[in-house]
């Protein structure tokens, strides 16, 4: 007779025997801490530190998977921990940061009363929840389609890019001493845009087809060098550069979709009639 406790004991004993790979999971824990730190700093009103923490979380989130593949320490435990860390760092943290920074109270704006007292006081958290829910849906879809998806493209805007888009806005506005209340409509629109773009079927380039061991043309090396020089020269405008970079990446999916649509229509057109 089948006893479900037997399978649980087997899984438990196997997990205890194999243990946990500490190196890639250490990077994941650091990313999780950065997301938690961003929430704490936003609650304390230190929005610049909160935005920087989200970018730090993105860096360590990108490193944990690469470290696991390089050291051959991939595991189901690491994949689940990474997914939970992403939800905190790129789902909950950006939503709370932008909510406390700009979306907290729409009712104080003149002229918004026409929307009704109930809606005017809840526009902010509605946008924040839309982003948070879309991030959860995006991560769930990514985990279930990981084996069949095209590695060259992401389906929908990746949650780290969406989080950095919002964090970039907060950081860039803070550099110019612009308060969130002054750009709350921009923050609201960008939050909803980032959230809905995560759950679309648009294609976003992933960069996973880049092979670092493969030779590249000399022009590519020159372009990389020029990019590094440009980054060093304009390092003082790093927040603005990061915001523009992730805003361009967030729009790239729509550009690819438009290009594919135009290309498919041109391919279906009948050839011109010969005289």
List the helices and strands and how they pair.
Elements (H helix, E strand, L loop, with lengths): L3 H15 L3 H22 L3 H25 L4 H28 L13 H28 L8 E3 L3 H17 L8 H15 L4 E3 L12 H16 L4 H31 L7
Antiparallel strand pairs: 1-2
Briefly summarize what is shown.
With 275 residues, the chain is mainly α. It has a single domain, classed as CDP-alcohol phosphotransferase transmembrane (TM) domain (Four Helix Bundle (Hemerythrin (Met), subunit A)). It is built from nine helices and two strands.
List keywords for this structure.
globular; mainly alpha; 275 residues; Four Helix Bundle (Hemerythrin (Met), subunit A); 72% helix; two-stranded antiparallel ribbon; single chain
What is the distance, rounded to the nearest whole angstrom, between the alpha carbons of the first and last residues? 80 Å
- Overall pLDDT: 83
Backbone shape: globular
Q: Supply the number of structural domains.
A: 1
Q: Compute the gyration radius: what is it?
A: 22 Å
Looking at CATH, the homologous superfamily is CDP-alcohol phosphotransferase transmembrane (TM) domain
CATH architecture: Up-down Bundle
Describe the overall structure.
By secondary structure, this protein is mostly helical. The protein has a single domain (16-259), classed as CDP-alcohol phosphotransferase transmembrane (TM) domain (Four Helix Bundle (Hemerythrin (Met), subunit A)), CATH 1.20.120. Helices cover 72% and strands 2% of the residues. The chain contains nine helices and two strands; from the N terminus they run αααααβααβαα. It has helices spanning 4-18, 22-43, 47-71, 76-103, 117-144, 159-175, 184-198, 218-233, 238-268, and strands at 153-155, 203-205. The chain has a two-stranded antiparallel sheet with strand order 1-2. The longest helix has 31 residues, at 238-268. The protein is globular. 33% of the residues are buried. The model is unreliable at 9-17 (pLDDT under 50).
